[in-house]
Amino acid sequence: MAYMNPIRKRIWRIYLVAALLIVCCCLLVACNNDTSYNVSGDVSEPTHFMAKLMYKLGETDGLKNASFGWTVVVFTIILRLILSPLDIWQKLIARKNSKAMERMRPQLEALNEKYGDDKQRLQQEQMALYKKEHYSMLGMCLPTIITFVVFFVVFAGFRQMVGYQYAKDYKTSAEAFNTVVAQEIDAYGYGDRNGDGIKDLADIDPTDADVVKIKTRIIDKAQSAVLETYRSEEQTNIRGWLWIKNIFVSDNWSQEVPDYAKITGQSGFATSRLSGIEKSEYELVMGKVLGTGGYGKEGKWNGLLILPALSLLLSFLSTFLLNKSQAQPPQPVQKDANGQAQPNQANSMKMMQWIMPIMMGVFSLLYSGAFALYMFTSSAAAILFQLTFNLIAKLVDMSRERKVPSNVAKR
User: Fold this and answer.
1) Less Cβ around it within 10 Å: N or C end of the chain?
2) Rg for the chain (alpha carbons), in Å?
3) Are strands 37-38 and 274-275 parallel, antiparallel or unpaired?
4) Which residues pair with 363 in a beta bridge?
5) pTM (2 decimals)?
6) Is 407 part of any domain?
7) Range of the domain at 375
8) In terms of C-beta distances under 8 Å and separation of at least 24 residues, what long-range contacts does 276-279 make, across chains too?
9) How far apart, in whole angstroms, are the C-alpha atoms of residue 38 and residue 41?
């Protein structure tokens, strides 16, 4: 970095700061307890404004009983439309920079030749030229920085939605379990022995010789009711999406039904934390549901790794198209003491621009299928928008060229 063009060095610093912000955001999101749900009481609606939007969309007539995956698709399209003025602004800045760079390139190359050994003077001359041609260095980095901000804001919303669904699934299952237990307690004539107003397994007379058999029968019947409820058409429609068994779980080797460690945030990647429940209680209620329903032997896999692969591919393609639309300044040739040319340090800058696609690939692999679907849909929309913008820009340029008389020099 010591021999890098000072202007490139400044942009490098911007990307380093952005990378540091990403790490900080990851740590804050992973450690944030604001999205936890206490399942000992009623499960409240999501409070994050992004999660609220998804929740309200899911409650509309067209999406109420449909897979949450389709809610994610609609949500992503709406969000892209809301952010479209910002997208247009970014692309106009990039287009303006590209045009300015085309005009400046011969002059920048001349400056590199003239002041290549005087870094301070070269920077001064380049900055003066950039100012004259209204070239914005921040405009080159702005799309990436804004994308980072939107990424983590949306991620926080999805994180809360996952926690909400975990809590809702457990509460629905617990209600089915407790209903059957109460009915069986009545049937065996135990009543409310401990006087807590709740008919549960604690009401069974411990002195009864057949208490173990009775408890086993009641638990088996209650767990069967949970299995039936969890696998009902309404529930599976909401959680499933195409090949993914549970859209709220990663499209990978994770189990379709999250275990206690996952729902309480003790394992997994930045998952929401459920509280107010003991491990033994969760495993008792979900006994016949855990470890079922997925792909492979014993239903171990929730998905087939399709969304993470597609999300990574489209993220790289989107970044490639964006970088292609932004003209880069010519780089001065660095030479060693023997006059031999050294590798261009700007290659490191290009590597920084690929942080976002790699990060998206990691998130889509390790986080929920819903968030991976959001990233896939968002990247697809970004690519379509970029290609459309490029086509319109090309048609505008062609129209302007036809209007310019052939004897008039083009700027």
Assistant:
1) C
2) 29
3) parallel
4) none
5) 0.77
6) no
7) 1-402
8) 276/38, 276/39, 276/40, 276/41, 277/39, 277/40, 277/170
9) 7
